[in-house]
TrEMBL record:
<keyword id="KW-1133">Transmembrane helix</keyword>
<keyword id="KW-0325">Glycoprotein</keyword>
<dbReference type="InterPro" id="IPR006985">
    <property type="entry name" value="RAMP"/>
</dbReference>
<dbReference type="GO" id="GO:0006816">
    <property type="term" value="P:calcium ion transport"/>
</dbReference>
<dbReference type="InterPro" id="IPR038126">
    <property type="entry name" value="RAMP_sf"/>
</dbReference>
<dbReference type="GO" id="GO:0015026">
    <property type="term" value="F:coreceptor activity"/>
</dbReference>
<dbReference type="GO" id="GO:0007186">
    <property type="term" value="P:G protein-coupled receptor signaling pathway"/>
</dbReference>
<dbReference type="Pfam" id="PF04901">
    <property type="entry name" value="RAMP"/>
</dbReference>
<dbReference type="GO" id="GO:0006886">
    <property type="term" value="P:intracellular protein transport"/>
</dbReference>
<keyword id="KW-0472">Membrane</keyword>
<dbReference type="GO" id="GO:0031623">
    <property type="term" value="P:receptor internalization"/>
</dbReference>
<keyword id="KW-1003">Cell membrane</keyword>
<dbReference type="GO" id="GO:0005886">
    <property type="term" value="C:plasma membrane"/>
</dbReference>
<dbReference type="GO" id="GO:0032870">
    <property type="term" value="P:cellular response to hormone stimulus"/>
</dbReference>
<keyword id="KW-0732">Signal</keyword>
<dbReference type="GO" id="GO:0009986">
    <property type="term" value="C:cell surface"/>
</dbReference>
<keyword id="KW-1015">Disulfide bond</keyword>
Length: 138
């Protein structure tokens, strides 16, 4: 029991270390430079296609997380997020999603799409009423 208590207190002590923000901010740019070098291998026209660089981005994310943890900081944190946002602005600022403009179908198609279920409903009601009046045959 004493061993477990000691481990528990040691774990609690390790978690109370203060985040060394200046160390983290000093180390994060190395992750950005590494990502930048990897992104040079990808045609800039394909920077909006995540499948083209997903491994590079994963390495970048792991690097930022590792450096934050080495500086006794949790991840993500506001400073790391600010750094990551800067990288996003540098590489992905032109990757805007185009909004889909929805339009109603032409009136002829719209009327058909409305009338078919209405007519089927009326036909089913008529069939049920007619069959219930002719229960002697069934």
């Amino acid at each position: 029991v004493n061993g477990l208590m000691t481990l528990g207190f040691a774990g609690a002590h390790q978690q109370t270390e203060l985040c060394n923000e200046s160390l983290m901010l000093e180390k994060l740019p190395a992750c950005g430079r590494s990502f930048e070098e990897m992104m040079k291998k990808v045609d800039s026209k394909k920077w909006c296609n995540l499948t083209e660089f997903i491994m590079y981005y994963d390495n970048f994310t792991q690097c930022t997380e590792r450096e934050a943890n080495n500086a006794s900081c949790f991840w993500p944190n506001p400073l790391a997020e600010g750094f990551i946002t800067g990288i996003h602005k540098q590489f992905f600022s032109n990757c805007t999603s185009e909004k889909v403009h929805w339009e109603d179908p032409p009136d002829e198609i719209l009327i058909t799409l409305i009338l078919i279920p209405v007519m089927l409903t009326c036909a089913m009601i008529t069939l049920v009423v007619w069959c219930s009046k002719r229960s002697d045959i069934l």
